[in-house]
Amino acid sequence: ILRNSDPYSYVLYLWRNRPSIVIGRNQNPWKECNLALMAERDVVLARRSSGGGAVYHDLGNTNYTVVMPREAFTRDMCAEMVARALQASDIPAYVNARHDVAVDGLKISGSAFKLTKQRAFHHGTMLIDADLARLHGCLKSQAHDCIDAKGVASVPSPVVNLRDYSLSLDHSSFCDAVLRQFANTFAPPDEVTVVDTAGDQRTVDERCRIQTWDWLYGQTPEFTHRLHRSFAWATVFATVTARHGRITDASIGTAESALQPPPGSRLLFADVAARLKGVRYHPSDINECLLSVIDSDSPRASELCDWLISNLSYNTISSA
What is the DSSP string of 41-103? Predict the structure, then answer.
């Protein structure tokens, strides 16, 4: 829609997702999400093309996107439009300093933006009756404190469902209220055209693209994962740097002040670190590159590799 619509037009797109965590364009899924827990709860990962932090979607959460001429865009314009739609339903909504829609100090709608030369869009979520219990824990990565990332970090905010303020408001009535305010704000009602894009081939192609590993994980900015473990034979430190989903550098060793590790350990560390370079940051790829080391006659080598495999990408949702 952003790329193919008339540059002077105003477009409102209303949509919902199955249970999912949607991260921003420059976020790190390994740092932001507990991907293993998401897999257990059948919550999928998605990455949007706009910035901002990670958010939870399900069928109790309605999303709205407004695409408009860039020259007319302000960060609060569309959020205020949605707040007015809720106010018309006797919900005391307002826009806070972070451009989110809130009620009583609790966020009900987050915002994300994207600007191009001629166009701009505002993404917003609306928590109507989302399953917040299913969300709990999915945005708490076990590796969060071990990863130094260059991408954008999420800023957690207390949230609430609109269901706590209205028993009658649902997806359909919310969409109707926002559509009325969209028409009042940007165009006379008789100039608003409703279009269903579900079967459009460009929509189908885009849906396929954003489900690929290259988009979900390969778009991740550079990050460094630091970890350590005390084995019976040494305390080992590992530092692994990855960019765009591939390991670009790795180093493994022991603390300088520690006792000398067993003979052959330094060669083992160098060999494993060299094997990791260039490998996709994915459990199957890391396992494959270290397989011959694991199958060696060295218990230390197997122990070291098992530890790296289980910690470097332990919470990655498997995907092609």
Answer: TT-EEEE-SS-S--EEE-TTEEEEEEEEEGGG--TTHHHHHHHHHHHTTT---EE-TTS-EEE
Whole-structure pTM over 0.85, yes or no?
no
For residues 236 and 269, give the distance between their C-alpha atoms in angstroms, rounded to a whole number: 9
Q: In which element (H, E) is residue 270 found?
A: helix 265-276
Q: What's the pLDDT at 320?
A: 43
> Are 141 and 21 in contact, with CB atoms under 8 Å apart?
no
Distance of CA 224 to the CA centre of its chain: 18
Listed residue (268, 277, 275, 273) closest to 299, CA to CA: 268
For residues 248 and 269, is the Cβ–Cβ distance under 8 A? no
Residues 6+ apart with CB under 8 A from 306: 294
Cα–Cα distances in angstroms (integers) from residue 45 to residues 34, 152, 179, 282, in the given order = 10, 17, 29, 15
In this model, does residue 319 exceed pLDDT 80?
no
